[in-house]
Amino acid sequence: MTAQVFRNCRIATMVAGSPYGMVDQGALVAENGRIKWVGPSNQMPAQAASAEIHDLGGRLMTPALIDCHTHLVHGGNRAREFEMRLNGASYEEVARAGGGIVSTMTATREATEDQLVTQALPRLDALIAEGAALVEVKSGYGLSIADEIKMLRAARKLAQLRPVRIVTSWLAAHALPPEYRDRADQYIQEVAIDGLRQAHSQGLVDAVDGFCENIAFSPAQMALVFQAAQDLGLPIKLHAEQLSNLGGAAMAAGFGAISADHLEYLDGDGVAALAAAGTVAVLLPGAFYTLHETQMPPVQALRDAGVPIAIATDANPGSSPLTSLLLTMNMAATLFRLTPQEALFGVTQAAATALGQGDDTGSLAIGKRADLAIWDVADPAELTYRIGFNPLYRRILKGVM
Ligand code: DI6
Ligand code: FE
Question: pTM to 2 decimals?
Fold first, then answer.
C-alpha cells in the first residue's frame, strides 16, 4: 500500500521525555497500518514519489483515544430510577419498583443479541465521534452463562459494524443474581468459572474482570476466578477499592493484573502492590461524580510510586452513564487533579497498557499502529480544559484518512 504522509501538524506523540512528547512542525509517515516514521518535518526522510501527502493545516495530532473500561453493552437504562430518586424516592422504593443493577440484568436477559447491539451502537458512536479507536467492553449484566456469552457476542459484533477495535472482558463476577441468593460460592463456581471456560473456548474472552466489594464478591472468591483465568492464560483485571478497602487491588496485583480499577479507597500497601506488579491504575471519574463520592483516589501516592494512571468512562447504566472520553478527561482534572498531560496519557498510552496493548498502540512511535486523532485545537491542554465541546477534525485508522 502507498505510504501516507501527514504533515503540517503539531504532534503530541505521548512518548516519554518531553511534555506530551510534543513535536512542533511535525510529520508522520504511515505504511501498512503502522507508523513508519514520526518527527520534525524538516528531518523527514525522502519518501517514495508515490507517497500520498496530507496537509493537516497546523492542527494537533494525538494517538487515537482508548476507552479501557466500559459496560457499553447492556439492556435498557436506568433513567426512570434516576428521576425517581431526584423526586425524593428512597433506595428501598427504587428497589421495590424494580430498580438497581437487577433491573439491568432483567433487561439484558430479555434482550436478544441483536437488540443489545442496536442499543449499544449509539453509545459506541459517541465514543468514536470523539476519536476513540479501541474500546474495552465487559459482560456482567447477564449473570447466567448464556446471557454473559450473549453480551460478549454482541460486543464482538460491534466491531463488525463500526470502524473500531473492541476487546472483551468476562465479568460474570459482577453481581449475584437473585436465583443464587446466599449461594455466592456456588455462583462463582457454576457461572463465573465454568462460564469463563465456555466463553473462552468460543474465543470470546480477552481478559477476566470482577467486582470485589462487600456488595459483590470477596478477594477470596475473586482469587478462585483469577486462578481459573491464569490456567487459561488470560490476563486479569479487577474493580477494586471503589466503595471500601478490601485489599482487592493487592490481591489482583499478586496475580499480575494488567489493571486495577476505581481505587478510591486504595491504601499505601495497595499502591505498593500495584507498583511492584506493574499494574495500571484505572481511575473512573464518571462513577465518582455520579455516586457523589468524596473519597479521592490516592493520585499523588500513585504518581510517587510510578504507577501508570489510565482513565476511562466506566460507561454503565447505574453509576456512570457517561460516553465521552473528553468529558472524562475534564472530570479527571477537575475532580482528581490530574494534569491535562496526565489526562491525555490516561486515554492513550496508559489505557493501552491497561489492556495489555501498550507495545502495540497508545503512543506515536515507529512500529506502532497508525491510529490517530486530529484536533482543531492549537494546545493539547484544550482537550481537557473544555467542557461539552468536541474539536475532533478527523480520526485516522491504520494510516488511512
Ligand atoms: N461498579 C460500579 O459502579 C458499577 N459496577 C461496578 O462494578 C455499578 C453498575 C450498576 O449499577 O449497574
Ligand atoms: Fe465498571
Answer: 0.97
